[in-house]
From TrEMBL:
One of its GO terms (molecular function) is enoyl-CoA hydratase activity. The keyword Lipid metabolism applies. It is an enzyme of class 4 (lyase). InterPro entries: ClpP/crotonase-like_dom_sf (IPR029045), Enoyl-CoA_hyd/isom_CS (IPR018376), Enoyl-CoA_hydra/iso (IPR001753), Enoyl-CoA_hydra_C (IPR014748). It catalyses: a (3S)-3-hydroxyacyl-CoA = a (2E)-enoyl-CoA + H2O; a 4-saturated-(3S)-3-hydroxyacyl-CoA = a (3E)-enoyl-CoA + H2O. This is enoyl-CoA hydratase.
């Protein structure tokens, strides 16, 4: 399907979704959020897709919510239309993994969107920030919560209250991103990680993602119990037999998603 504000491609079970509003540094307007929601719905529904990658341009992953679209909204409008949550959190409901490949600016809602993905691979020119305070508002799509969990209170307060940007090296040091690569290698690196994921047992991948996400929502003892039960449940799939047989027989597994 073609989208007004996105470019999509598929390679080896991976759907690459490129945010494409260069005139506004990929700021999220209503059209882009509707397109992104539809693109994620489409990828989730397609059994041939095992992983998604969301990226922007070399200059900007996304410079946040569209300030020009948002500026004149009233309280009655933002509350009435449930501004933000209506479709902003679609990425957090994906059962398949979603990787954010971030080059350039990831600011405000752009940083929040990257943090909603399962992990972030950054280019060496990436700049993360929550500068909403400069506009007289606060983060509104999870920034105060997710950034604090990622990098701790002191750094999160510093970034959110002073609006300073964090470069890729600092983002890697404090655990916001999983790795940093030269900007020219960003897409290949993210696609290689995504292709590896897409080649695995899809049920094992989805259940493992659920387990890691549970670490944010449950006490340790319950999280460990959930992990054990879901681990046991993986023995119900043919892919477990295939994966272990392939190891013993020294061959590549052929996972079938059953
Ligand atoms: N919204 C709308 N347009 C934008 C945005 C944006 N967030 N960011 C950049 N643009 C536009 C600029 O207006 C400019 O357009 P034009 O050429 O027509 O004037 C074009 O993109 C290029 O931008 P600049 O000329 O400013 O480029 P620079 O390289 O000089 O600067 C910056 C790049 C530093 C990224 C600068 O553009 C900037 O500071 N942008 C705003 C960043 C920001 O404040 N982001 C937070 C937005 S608020 C938010 O995200 C709240 C999230 C809560 C959820 C919202 C749910 C909807």
């Amino acid at each position: 399907m073609a989208y007004e504000t996105l470019l999509t491609e598929t390679h080896d079970g991976v759907r690459l979704i490129r945010l494409n509003r260069p005139e506004a540094l990929n700021a999220f307007n209503n059209q882009l959020m509707n397109d992104l929601t539809a693109a994620l719905d489409e990828a989730e529904a397609d059994d041939a897709i095992g992983c998604m990658v969301i990226t922007g341009s070399e200059k900007a992953f996304a410079a946040g919510a569209d300030i020009k679209e948002m500026a004149s909204k009233s309280y009655a409008e933002v509350y009435g239309e449930d501004f933000i949550t209506r479709n902003w959190e679609r990425v957090t409901r994906c059962r398949k993994p979603v990787i954010a490949a971030v080059a350039g600016f990831a600011l405000g809602g752009g940083c929040e969107m990257a943090m909603m993905c399962d992990f972030i691979i950054a280019a060496d020119n990436a700049k993360f920030g929550q500068p909403e305070i400069n506009l007289g508002v606060s983060p509104g799509a999870g920034g105060t919560q997710r950034l604090t969990r990622f990098i701790g209170k002191s750094k999160a307060m510093d970034m959110i209250l002073t609006a300073r940007f964090m470069d890729a090296a600092e983002a890697e040091r404090c655990g916001l991103v999983s790795r940093v690569v030269p900007v020219a290698e960003l897409i290949d690196t993210a696609m290689a990680a995504a292709k590896k994921i897409a080649s695995l047992s899809p049920n094992a991948v989805k259940l493992t993602k659920e387990m890691v996400n549970a670490a944010y929502e449950t006490p340790l003892s319950q999280g460990v119990m959930l992990e054990r039960r879901l681990f046991h449940s993986l023995f119900a799939f043919e892919d477990q037999k295939e994966g272990m047989a392939a190891f013993v027989e020294k061959r590549k597994p052929a996972f079938k998603g059953r």
